[in-house]
Amino acid sequence: MTKAESRVVDLTLTGRLGLDFANTVDRPTSEHPEEFITSYSDLVRWSQHTGLLTEAEARRIRREAARRPQEANIVLEEAKSFREVIFRIFSRVAAERQPETTDLDLLNKKLSEAFSHLRVAPQKTGFRWEWAGGENRLDQMLWAVAQAAGEMLVDEEALTWLRECANPGCGWLFVDTSRNKSRRWCKMGVCGNRVKARRHYEQVKASR
Q: Which band of pLDDT confidence, cut at 50, 70 and 90, is reported for residue 29?
């Protein structure tokens, strides 16, 4: 396991798959955001981390990617592009702004593709949703991501408490589940402390 791969499986999850996918990159104000998915293997490891792929499914899809490396690289770039669509949509919603129509169109296009693989299947008691036809598809994990993003957009309560981390060097998205709904940071122990330390430094510097 490489350093990058070990980091992607250590990412904190929000419980909202669409947001978790958007949060696989830090978006500082500089032109060089910190990327956690640097290879197709990272994308697979993240999918395992979130429960989208089992270990057996991950092994199978890695074998497919090894046989089709060029396609795997294309899927990786498509995944990153789709991730930015999701981020732009929810970032604007968090700022109480309407998403761009072009971004919603791109999400709906991905949803249309994903839902063409969604099936109702029987189980011991009742029925369940399952994805069909994805055994050899290298982009299969993006179907569930698209579904989760769409479902969250129509969840009025979740959108009410959608936040973007107040640390300008982060940009992670989360749903504020705190009691008084005053949470400002994705993780207080990380971003909150960083911003407070930065403010303290600036105050000391100004006093001099």
A: low
